[in-house]
Amino acid sequence: MNEPGFLTYLEGEGIALEVPFNRYLPQHPAGVVRKWLAQHASPGSWVLEPIGASPAAILEMAEAGYKVLVAANNPVVAFELQILAQAPVKTEFQSVLRELSVQKKGDERLQGHIQNLYLTRCTTCGREVAADYFLWRKSEETPYAKYYRCTACGDEGEHLISETDIERLAPYKRSDPLHRARALEKIPELTRAARANLEELLKVYAPRSLYVLFTLINKIEGMSLSPARRELMDALLLSALEAGHSLWPAGDGNERPRVFNIPSEYVEHNLWLALEKCIDAWCIREKSISVTRWPDLPEGGGICLYQGRMRDLLQQKPAISLESVCCVLPRPNQVFWSLSTLWCSWVWGKETAANFKNVLERQRFDWYWHANALNSALAPAARMIKLGSPAFCLIPEPVPGFVAAAFEACCSGNLQLTGLAYKDEQHPIQTEWSAQPANREVKKVNLHKIIREAIHSSLMHIGEPCRYLQLYTAVMASLSVNEAFPVSIQQMTYDLVTNIHEEILKVFADRKFLRRMDATTQDLVSGFWWLVQPEGCQASLADRVEKEVVNLLQEESEISTADVQQEMNSRFTGYLTPPAELVEVCLQSYAELDKAARKWRIRESEKYDSRQQDMADIQLQLLSLAGRLSLAADGDNPIDWIDPKTDGSLVYRLFFTSSAGMSRWLAAETDDNVECVFLFPGSRSGLIRYKLDRDPWLRERVTQRWHFLKFRTLRELSSRKDISRDLWDLLIDSDPISQEDATQLSMFL
Ligand SMILES: [Zn+2]
């Protein structure tokens, strides 16, 4: 069995750019692709980005000095990337907007005409004011509330709608069918089914918004603008198109729409205000990057943008020596892709959208379809770089179906998995591949064996119960390196993929092999998975991470959280990448944070010598206390307390440690009838509590006959003159790990 390589998880660095249309784009931390390129690509070399889903990632590569060849099939994203690379300044946008504002609509200026559409009356002073937005309930004919800021009296906030507000809507309703018909005319020829989809889709634009948007589109078409100013105008218009649909839920509007579902309460934005506001997002960058359109190439570093499909770019046989592939894989995004088709048809004409319009013809975007879509970009990419060249694929917001689609797409595109790093469900999975010759030999493999061993080996290695996604990723990686996936997408049939998935489900259903813990629903992603027979597994990841964090703190006089995390990532690679929270809790347990310097320093009391002294002291206390309880003591650590009166039976086994590491003690065979006591410094309470909360197997093993006793409680108990066996039995659980565990027993009973 081949095992996948384990990579050091690359942590993000810096703040992710809040670019336009951000809520539709793959979410990933800044700095990761830059770090990967620094390790794998020579400075200034050509990098291929075959998908073009994340403008922020592409800009980051170019900013780091690489030449990036990008194929972006979505014209909206390609355009956005180009504008952001140019880093226009606010005054340029403001000047374009001013020119737009003075265009004439009838007798009015355009700005006044549009602002007037949102006029309402201040409920306090009675003056007219343009509302910022209106609030609607889905399927109702009129809005129910409005938000305005009255400059005359200072009144600001949401107010109920008035009769006049409702009357103002009447004209748009009457002319709406006409606008809707015009909007449809501008879309490329479609099949009848797609046409029906489109009419449905257009409902996300309410009558007043549609009226404003087509007024803007028509005006802008008639303006004579330089190409550079036209581009800025298009950027503003795209933002207005985004602000103008009804997929903005009332309240927190940052939810990411994944389906065309108008929220039960949604916001209708004042679109003139939206034009003014969107300028900030377009001006988020300061330094411009050279950007060219294929086949022109940038001189020095920069971006060469190919707007179209990878297979068409491959046909053109680019004479560029591409050293690596680096990309962020997107999830299927029907909402954004469909909206993009509408927008680019309206802004740039039907022709631009022709390549892209098939998203309107498709109703369902399942993961099998998505594997094919990703493959159609990745397979040509693998052929465009030299054999053996590296490819980095980031899988953000991972879920099992997406992970499967990504691995299937790469494997069937002649990319061979060379390594991966998995952090958690909130962070992108990092995968590394190498371009392989096409036409590799296809072997018959034992799916069941590969899947089972991948799960077994991961769990034995991690030493604690895992989430489904983590094991599923391990399975996908193992299937990849053991060549369970076919070498071409044509052979990756629906039946084959289904068969693999059924085999995975079978293994997870085997109750002699795996058990579920803490599951709240039947769904496989709920709760944790653990081995029925975990004997011989590694100490828990949490215990091992704690130990390494402490070692690091002993070595370094001061260190930042980020440096500790990156160092832990390099000591625990692949699936073992320590969760940020675990590292943080370990640090809190042993060190003080210097808030000004943002560095951790180990506490004096936690230094090695100091803890050695504690340990010696506790050992003495335990020996002397045994005597006072008329018990005999045996062993160093654990110390056994034996009752000479009952034929030398073992009554307590006491483990003492300066850490919160419990795996070692729990693995030791202990007779079921013995009461075990775990003695630890009080400063370890938080970490022990945290470990018990996160690890259901650990919790299960310490529920019976295990007692947790802090060093200080032991000292208090042994200082009591009246200490007796009965009192010890009674008070042993009196100072629990945290308040939640309080047993209601007072120390002074
Ligand atoms: Zn007022």
Protein architecture, described:
The chain has 749 residues and is an alpha/beta fold. The chain folds into four domains: 1-87 and 285-388, Rossmann fold (3-Layer(aba) Sandwich); 91-282, no CATH class; 541-602, Orthogonal Bundle (Arc Repressor Mutant, subunit A); 608-741, no CATH class. It has 29 helices and 25 strands. The strands form seven sheets. The protein has an eight-stranded mixed sheet, with helices on both faces. Strands 21-22-23-24-25 form a five-stranded mixed sheet. It has a four-stranded antiparallel sheet with strand order 9-8-7-10. Zinc ion binds at residues 122, 124-125, 127, 150, 152-153, 155.
End-to-end CA span: 61 Å
Describe the sheet with the most strands.
8 strands, mixed
Helix content: 40-55%
| Whole-number count of domains | 4
Overall pLDDT, averaged?
92
Shape: globular
Quaternary structure of the protein: single chain
Number of strands: 25
Beta-strand content estimate: 15-25%
| Number of DSSP helical runs | 29
* Poorly predicted ranges: 739-749
Structural class: alpha/beta
Biggest sheet strand order reads 11-12-2-1-13-14-16-15
The ligands found in this model are:
zinc ion
What is the radius of gyration computed over CA atoms, rounded to a whole number of angstroms?
Answer: 32 Å
Write the layout of secondary structure elements.
Layout: H1 32-40, E1 46-49, H2 55-63, E2 67-72, H3 75-86, H4 90-101, E3 104-105, E4 108-109, H5 110-117, E5 119-121, E6 128-130, E7 133-137, E8 145-149, E9 156-160, H6 163-185, H7 192-201, H8 207-222, H9 227-243, E10 265-269, H10 271-277, H11 279-282, E11 291-293, E12 302-307, H12 310-315, E13 322-328, H13 334-348, H14 350-354, H15 358-361, H16 367-384, E14 390-395, H17 400-411, E15 415-421, E16 429-435, H18 447-462, H19 468-481, H20 494-509, E17 514-517, E18 528-531, H21 541-555, H22 561-571, H23 580-590, E19 591-594, E20 599-602, H24 608-628, E21 632-634, E22 639-643, E23 649-656, H25 663-667, E24 675-680, H26 685-694, H27 696-702, E25 706-710, H28 711-719, H29 725-731
